[in-house]
Each structure stands twice: as C-alpha cells, then as structure tokens.
Amino acid sequence: MGGTSAEREVSLDSGRNVLEALRARGVDADAVDGIPALIEAIRHGGVDRVFNILHGNKGGGEDGVLQGLLEALGVPYTGPGVLGSALTMDKIRTKQVWIAAGLPTPRFARIAKGDDLAAAAKALGFPVFVKPSSEGSSVGVFRVLQEADLAPAIAFAQGYDGELLMEQMVQGDEYTVGILGETALPSIRIVPAGEWYDYHAKYIADDTQYLCPGMDGDAEDEIRGVALAAFKAAGCTGWGRVDVMRDRVRGLQLIEVNTAPGMTSHSLVPKAAGHVGIGFEELCWRILEQTVRSPLSNTTEAAPK
C-alpha cells in the first residue's frame, strides 16, 4: 500500500480497508508502505505472498515493475502479471491493442511533449478529454468542450514529461465492470451530481449515484462480455476493473482498465461484488486466494493462512 505515485493517498485508504478485512478473516497480514520497504521485508524472509493494493506508476505497483520484481523473486501476488499491468498503465497502447482486437474505443490522438494540442483537438473534433497516458484516479484530466477551454490542458502539458492521450468525448452514460477471475461482475452505472466523474466525485463526494446493475437483459450481458474481452485482450488475469461508456450513437466504448482498483468506501468493485452477495471481507479473501496457484507454473501452493 502507499508508495510514491500520485495516487498514494487513495492507496493508503484502500490498504487500510484490505488489511482490516484480511485480519478479520484470520490472515497474518501486515501493512508495507511502498516497494523499497517490501524488498526489505522479502529480504528478511517475512513475506509469503503480496496483496498488491498500490495504485499508479512511478512508485505505485500497477505498472508491471513490482510484478516483474516479485516474479523474479518467486513471490506470489494478487492481480494481473507483468504484461497486463504494464500495458494497461499506458492508455494509448491499450487502445491500440483493443483496436487490433476489433474492440470498440473512442478515436484518439497521441500527444508527445511539444505537440500542438489545438491542432490535435481540431483534427479529432471537439469535445475531447486530455489526460496523461499513464496515470489514474482522474489525475491530470481535462474536459475540453471548445478551443477556448484548452488553456489549462496546454499549461499542464508544458510541465508534464510523459505522453498525453487526447480522446474524443463520449456523449452518453458512464459504466464500470469489475472482473473477478473469469467472471465479470454486474455493471455499475455512475451518475455524478456534477457534469462529469472527476476526482472529487470518485473519492470525496457523497452525492454520486451508483446504479447496479447498470443495465438490464441483453444490454447487461453485452457490457459484461465486452469488458471481460477487453480485460483478457490486454493480457490481464486475476481481478481488475474495466471502465466503459455507452455513446448515444456508437454504442459501447472502452475507456481503460484498472489492474489494482480502489478498495475505499467509494470504490466500485466492492459495490458490484456486494450486489451478488460477496461482502468486502469475502472479496478480499477471494482476491488473495488467487495467489494460491502460481502464475508461473501449474503447481498449487498451500492455501493462505
């Protein structure tokens, strides 16, 4: 938990909740803040397996770096492996894979440092979203309805070293689908009180509505199927969350994958799991249970204590 990414505070909150849940199930679990501390704990022989609830990159454990370290050291861990984690942390490359697989996602442009945002937006057509390709939790996201709204995004781009994703704005409803093993959990339709689902609506506001399941009948089957296909196409296994929107004209549009979703009081995977009778403690146990079978072999280890 914790770490040094831009999502540190959310990760600490998630980590506290997961730690309490695991201990309530009798698991001998301890909090470890960040990757260097984890390396020290492993070095001293105190780690059997890792419940990874770090978020983000650059010191967060959601970008494949931690996963590669743990595989090299032979330590089982929760969530997708190196490929799925690294790929989905990069929204641009994830979309390229989805397009190659024939899965629906909004048109986009890759913005390198120094590129002309105004020209890119005109080519795509307003309105657009501008966001870092490799951040999460709505960090550095700009909603641009017209050219006059570009100034904050341009200012951010000038001080940001990574690539930016500029994406056509989807005109329609927002959904998310939790993945647990081979199962897509019921979709959740997200209805923020404001104009869009920003950081405040995700983690602070209490007036955001979450409707579960988000759809009915065949439409619900479709969104779960598309989400699970997107998760697998990106090389992901274990558990995660796929964000989807339904455009009024183009239908379902894939937005991104989260490979270590939040586990806070506002988080969505626990809400979806609860809808099918899986409480928070049970959810954490089922995620931990996935570490029993090593992703590197067909051998089964002893069940977690």
Automatic annotation (TrEMBL):
A GO MF term: metal ion binding
Origin superkingdom: Bacteria
EC nos: 6.3.2.4
UniProt cofactor(s): Mn(2+); Mg(2+)
Residues annotated to bind Mg(2+) 1: D243, E256
Catalysed reactions listed for this entry: 2 D-alanine + ATP = D-alanyl-D-alanine + ADP + phosphate + H(+)
Cross-referenced Gene3D superfamilies: 3.40.50.20, ATP-grasp fold, A domain, ATP-grasp fold, B domain
Top EC group: ligase
Subcellular location: Cytoplasm
Binding locations of Mg(2+) 2: E256, N258
Pathway: Cell wall biogenesis; peptidoglycan biosynthesis
Cofactor details (free text): Binds 2 magnesium or manganese ions per subunit.
Example of a GO cellular component annotation carried by this entry: cytosol
Major site of localization recorded for this protein: cytoplasm
Keyword list, A-Z: ATP-binding, Cell shape, Cell wall biogenesis/degradation, Cytoplasm, Ligase, Magnesium, Manganese, Metal-binding, Nucleotide-binding, Peptidoglycan synthesis
GO biological process: cell wall organization; peptidoglycan biosynthetic process; regulation of cell shape
Function summary: Cell wall formation.
Family listed: Belongs to the D-alanine--D-alanine ligase family.
Protein name: D-alanine--D-alanine ligase
Organism: Agrilutibacter terrestris
